[in-house]
Amino acid sequence: MIDKLQSPLSQMISFNEILKQYDAMAQSDDSYLASKAKHILAAQAPYPELREGFTDISLLKKYKNVIKIILQDTFSEVLTNNEIKTASLPFDNVVFNSSERFKRILENAGGKEFLPHLRDFPDHHLYIMTCTIILSAHYGYSIDFKRPFFYDIPDKNGVMRHYRILYNADFMEILPTEKAKNLSKEDIDELLENFDNLALWQEKFPPQSFIGKGFVISSMFDVTNEHAISEIKSSLIANDKRGSESFMYNLQETFKSFFSIPDIRAGFVTYNPKKDQFEKVFGVGLESFILQDKEVEACKEALCQSSYSKLLTENGYFSISDVDKYFELSGGIMPYKSLKEQGIKSVIFAPIASEGNLLGVLELVSTQKNGLNSVNANKLEDIMPFIVTGVLRSMSEEENRIDAIIQNECTSVHSSVYWKFREEAKRFIVDGLEDRQPSFKEIVFKDVYPLYGQIDIKDSSLARNTAIQRDIMIQLSEINKVLEFAWQKNKLPIYEELIFRISNYIDEVKELLNTNSEQAVFNFVQNEIVPVFEHLKNQDKELLQMIISYESSIDMGTKSYYDHRRNYDESVMMINKKLSAVIDKKQKDAQAMFPHYFERYKTDGVEHNMYIGASIVDDQKFDSLYLSNLRLWQLQIMCEMENKHYNLKPELSVPLDVASLMLVYNTSLAIRFRMDEKRFDVDGTYNARYEIIKKRIDKSYIKGTNKRITEPGKMVIVYAQKSDELEYLRYIKFLKSKGYFSGKLEIVELEGLQGVAGLKAIRADILYSVKDSETAVSTDKMYTYEDLIEEFKI
Asked: Which residues are within 8 A (CB) of 58 and not within 5 positions of it... i.e. 6 or more apart?
């Protein structure tokens, strides 16, 4: 008997529907068709149960020959070795009258006892699908719940094949039993809103409430390749592929099905175009047959000339159908040597390329000679677009992860040294994938040459203190006016005492502004004056108007008078903004000349550090010419920034002056990125001398005088070596010819600084020009060291 599933259908095998068609054919005018139909009907006539239906599946074997006669038109003998076809009960594993090809598939999978099962179709869904069929056939209400049906069946080599099933239900009848219910539109609406409520569906369609009488014809199609493409696409879309334990296993299984090769294995390498080398892809289960145990290898060492040209130049497939043969023919060169050592007999290397740029290589290998070859390599045409998309997505994800690590560990990083941080971030990721404790190591650049420059706002502290002093005195004077008026109205001693204290504060601030004066006055006003003013507002209308007038002059942000300080702050901000814009814009040109580390920061003025050297760059050769070029560029830019201030000064609320200084240091040093401070600093005790000089020189004096070395209108270049002096005198002479300097200069010695002695300075007068005038310096033309050589024919 058929095992009664928990289904709304009670299955009954019957050939009534197909026999009814033969009944009609027997009356045909076509003698051949009529004769054939009568023959089939005569064969069935002794066995009425074949029409009436039965549930005992043992009768299928008993009536095997008669059933074959009945189904001869639907199962052609001439196609039996090609078609994958069988008669069966719907959604059931009971099959009969199968084609020869279907029988062979089952035998290869596990013998006659092997029963295929529908993939990914839980009982819940099967029950509801059966209900939707009943709704359509019996109640006349069509609901689309069509889903593709698949069998996953291994072949004789153990490679999984995938078959799609199409059911022909022309020979089925749906008959109600006494358990069947009458369903209203409201019932059906309720069902449509409750797909997941199996109990509700079982209530409306009780188990065994209908009879499924007849059979279906199942036609199957091998969709292994299509399934493989879909699986590869799904695998590559997934996130965190390299960290997934199942990613490579599933991918290998998919390639086995796709190529029908049970021992196929897949590997990957990425391509680094800057260094023309292959690099290992780290991750769970990921391997490379080109690199073997190496992490990186130059492409020309890993490949022969032919494979290099095919993969990197043509972006074409490179296949080796017989590794042993080509190992002998080539004399044991790469890649044949490494492949033979790994026991590989055939291989396909497929370039992963986007818009002509190689990203990596997909490696497919087999221990079968001729298993992989130039013919089946072309099957990859359907897969490679998805692999390219997946690789591009993985690269984007990795870049985002690298950026996130750098941002977390180091904050922002200058573009010139980003490559070094990127390498360290990649190592950080690999350590995590390899279950090592990941830590971001300090980044060091050795043998780099420093360049420092500053344009400082001259006497900024004095200007700031003057602004504070004026604001405090104005605010106290306004408060004093209110209190004196209040004293005249009502001679309370407290008013007189407050007036006395205000007078003392005014005298104190006027004479000398101490570091704590501003805070002391602020506290006095907030704690003692403001409460009094709140009281006075309610005492007199004139006082109210005076206090409102006073309060309107108070800045809401600082809660104090903020006029002169605002003018000062806005002037400083405008100077910093304009000067920063000049050097930031020109930095792009300087980086194009030769990459170097650059940082710029604003204080009371603009300072910048630059470091240039071989270790800063990843793929370029350094020459001392580039250092000379950057020094000349820096000098020119500092002059342009001075001219920018010169033209800006008339627009400033506070006409602040600036003074420029450059430090020349002709010894290379090392810089280290301090992970705790998130910034670069000089590395080592000896190199710390540079930082000491940099911090102290702007406050130093000309030897034997009380005159600071920095002065508005002069470019001050501090140095220690005679060679530096001669070099910068050449630069100044050259830039004088271009309108940057007047030609007047002096060379002075500096008073010894603590821990530093022997420094000198060139003080050159800057030539200023009014913007848009005929003598204005062009800021579009940047002069290089080559221009200087050409000018003086050095």
From this structure: none
Please work out, in degrees rounded to the nearest 5, the angle formed at the alpha carbon of residue 743 by the alpha carbons of 740 and 745: 110
For residue 707, the one-letter residue type is K
| Nearest of 174, 205, 175 to residue 187 by alpha carbon | 205
> CA–CA distance from 342 to each of 18, 293, 320 (Å)?
60, 11, 14
Per-residue 3-state assignment (H helix, E strand, C coil) for 691-750: HHHHHHHHHCEECCCCCECCCCCEEEEEECCHHHHHHHHHHHHHHHHCCCEEEEEEEEEE
128 close to 145: Cβ distance less than 8 angstroms: yes
**CA nearest 18: which of 97, 83, 92?**
97
Q: How far apart are CA 533 and CA 543, in angstroms?
A: 9
The secondary element (H helix, E strand) that includes residue 663 is strand 658-664
Q: Is 5 helix (H, G, I), strand (E, B) or coil?
A: coil
Any idea what the Cα angle at residue 449 is, between residues 448 and 455, rounded to 5°? 135
Whose tokens are 């089939």? That residue is: 40
Which H or E run includes 658? strand 658-664
Residue 468, C-beta contacts closer than 8 angstroms, at least 6 positions apart: 513, 518, 564, 565
- CA separation for the pair 189, 135 (Å, rounded): 12
**b/e string for 258-285 if b means 16 or more Cβ within 10 A?**
bbebbebbbbbbbbeeeeebbbbbbbbe
* 723-773 confidence digits (pLDDT tens): 999 999 999 999 999 999 998 999 999 987 776 778 999 999 999 987 655
Distance of CA 711 to the CA centre of its chain: 49
CA gyration radius for the chain? 45
Decide: 336 and 323 in contact? Cβ < 8 Å.
yes
Other residues' Cβ atoms within 10 Å of the Cβ of residue 577 = 12
Supply the DSSP string of 543-596, one letter for each residue: HHHHHHHHHHTEETTTTEE-SHHHHHHHHHHHHHHHHHHHHHHHHHHHHHHS--
N-terminal to C-terminal alpha carbon distance within the chain:
107
Section 369-395 average pLDDT: 86
* pLDDT given for residue 241 in this prediction: 54
Residues 28-75: tens digit of each pLDDT: 899 899 999 999 999 999 999 999 999 999 999 999 999 999 999 999
Whole-structure pTM value = 0.55
Q: Residue 774 is encoded by which pair of tokens?
A: 């005929």
Phi, psi of 144, deg, nearest 5 = -85, 105
Asked if omega into 273 is within 30° of 0 (cis), the reply is no
What are the backbone angles phi and psi of residue 690, rounded to the nearest 5°?
Answer: -60, -45
| pLDDT at site 414 | 56
